[in-house]
Structures are given as C-alpha cells and as structure tokens.
C-alpha cells in the first residue's frame, strides 16, 4: 500500500474507532495526551494510543493491539506497534509488566498496583487496593531510589473445593469462571 493510501486509511480509521464506545478519546485529545508525555504525536502513535485507551484500563500485548488495528483497518505493522509501546512505556504513558517471560504485557493503568495472574489461561487481573499492603522498602543502596515495584500473585484454581498443587498438570482445567470473563 502506498504511503498516501496508508495516511488516507488512518485518517478514516479514527472516527470509526471513536464510535466504538462513549467516552473513547478523540484524536485531538490523544495528541494532547502524547504531547504532555513528551511524545511527538505522529498519526500512527495517535492511532495506537486511541486503541490502547479506547476501552478503559487493560493489560495488553503488541499482538492483541495489532489484531485490533487490523480488524478496524488501521494499516500499522506489528514492528511499529512494538516501537510505539516501547516509547509509551519509556515515557510512563503505560507501564511494562513483568508477568510472563515469553510476552511483554503493558498496563494502561500506571498507578502502583499489583497483579493476579492465572496459571490456567495467563489472564491478568488487578489486585484490589485493599488486597495487598506493601510496607516501606528498606535497604535501598546508597545513591539509588526505587522507581518501580511489581508484585505478581500467581493463582491456580480449586477444583471441587480442592486446591491444585503447583506440580499438577493444568491442561484439563477449565478456563471458565471463577475467572472473570473479561479480566482487567
Ligand atoms: Zn494492572
């Protein structure tokens, strides 16, 4: 696809995306948000940022965003999405999560909070604020300060009231509730 066609498609993809939900960010609002974070609002960055923040807080991978972009005909490569997410995380617009050694997840909620991760399906959920209390961190080496604390609480289901031990195979375990259908 020629560059001019890509720009045309991008220009016309934005209004379609805005229609997805009441309160979804406008392209102007997203551009302002990017500038405020010190990020130059290129058309592709605006499109990716709109996708990211269009549906409330969530934990997302580059691959998921790529699929969403393809679905609404935004012509952005996976490599561009990787680069954008990396830039956004560097500027603290989103938070990189260290929950899965094979995939990088990003959190649109950059506030300090911990995560539950299901070992059945890998779904990630926020631990409620009252669910965990972190005390002050002592012993930080002289001259350094804490910039990020990540706590991951890994979960296994109970089946028929019985906990499944870490050594047991989970391949036959259902991914239906008690897991939330749409984990945050
Ligand atoms: Zn989160």
From TrEMBL:
Bias (Basic and acidic residues) ranges: 1-17
Region of interest: Disordered: 1-23
Annotated Pfam families: FUR (PF01475)
SUPFAM superfamilies in the record: Winged helix' DNA-binding domain (SSF46785)
Xref: InterPro entries: FUR, WH-like_DNA-bd_sf, WH_DNA-bd_sf
Gene3D superfamilies: Winged helix-like DNA-binding domain superfamily/Winged helix DNA-binding domain
Domain of life from the UniProt record: Bacteria
Protein name according to UniProt: Transcriptional repressor
Originating organism: Methylobacterium oryzae
């Amino acid at each position: 696809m020629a560059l001019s066609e890509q720009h045309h498609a991008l220009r016309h993809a934005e209004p379609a995306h805005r229609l997805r939900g009441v309160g979804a960010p406008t392209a102007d609002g997203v551009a302002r948000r990017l500038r405020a974070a010190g990020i130059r609002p290129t058309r592709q960055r605006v499109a990716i940022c709109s996708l990211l923040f269009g549906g409330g807080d969530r934990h997302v991978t580059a691959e998921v965003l790529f699929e969403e972009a393809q679905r609404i005909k935004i012509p952005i490569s996976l490599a561009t999405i990787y680069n954008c997410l990396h830039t956004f995380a560097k500027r603290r617009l989103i938070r990189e999560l260290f929950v899965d050694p094979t995939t990088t997840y990003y959190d649109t909620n950059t506030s300090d909070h911990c995560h539950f991760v299901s070992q059945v399906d890998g779904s990630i959920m926020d631990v409620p604020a009252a669910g965990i209390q972190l005390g002050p961190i002592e012993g930080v080496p002289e001259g350094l300060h804490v910039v990020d604390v990540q706590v991951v609480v890994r979960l296994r289901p109970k089946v028929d009231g019985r906990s499944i031990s870490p050594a047991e195979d989970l391949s036959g375990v259902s991914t239906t509730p008690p897991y939330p259908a749409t984990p945050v």
